[in-house]
Amino acid sequence: MDARAVLLLKLQAHPELSFSETPDVVRIEAPGPHGFAVELHSLGARSKVFLGNAGFHESFGSGSEALNFIAWCYSGTARLREIWRGGSAQAAVLEALEAGEWRPVAETRFFLVPFWRLRREIILENPSLLQGAER
């Protein structure tokens, strides 16, 4: 079974998550105003996952890697820090909770941003949906 089909099957167990699908993309909407959206793009054997609205993305060589990453996004130990200049995304930083502290693990940056515009930072975190997961 491909990653898209597996994800759709797993989403049936979480009616609290709203999602949409096309032949190549499954988009899980942000579960609330302080959460972030997750998109799985199926590219044959490869997959790409997009998080939030500031352009963060990660590529995976297998569907199982992408699915594990998506599950981690709902573990309570992942969050997304988006940095904006006006209405333009400047950076998106994925952080992991390790030993009680948030640490950056991956980052997407954009260089052509209006640096003179007001900087704002948004921290987004999805709820823990994994059975037995504790923070």
Write a short abstract of this structure.
The protein has 135 residues and is mainly beta.
Give a structural overview.
- With 135 residues, the chain is mainly β.
- The chain has helices at 3-11, 63-73; strands at 19-21, 25-28, 38-43, 46-51, 56-60, 78-85, 88-98, 101-109, 119-124.
- Strands 1-2-3-4-5 form a five-stranded antiparallel β-sheet, with helices on one face. Strands 8-7-6-9 form a four-stranded antiparallel β-sheet, with no helix packed on it.
- It contains two helices and nine strands; from the N terminus they run αβββββαββββ.
- Helix 1 packs parallel to helix 2.
- The radius of gyration is 15 Å and the shape is globular.
- The mean pLDDT is 92.
Helix content: 10-25%
Structural class: mainly beta
The overall strand count is: 9
Q: Please, what is the oligomeric state? A: single chain
- N-to-C SSE series? HEEEEEHEEEE
Low-confidence stretches: none
Write down the overall mean pLDDT: 92
Going across the major beta sheet, what is the strand order?
A: 1-2-3-4-5
Shape: globular
Radius of gyration from CA coordinates: 15 Å
Summed up, the helix count is 2
Describe the largest sheet. 5 strands, antiparallel
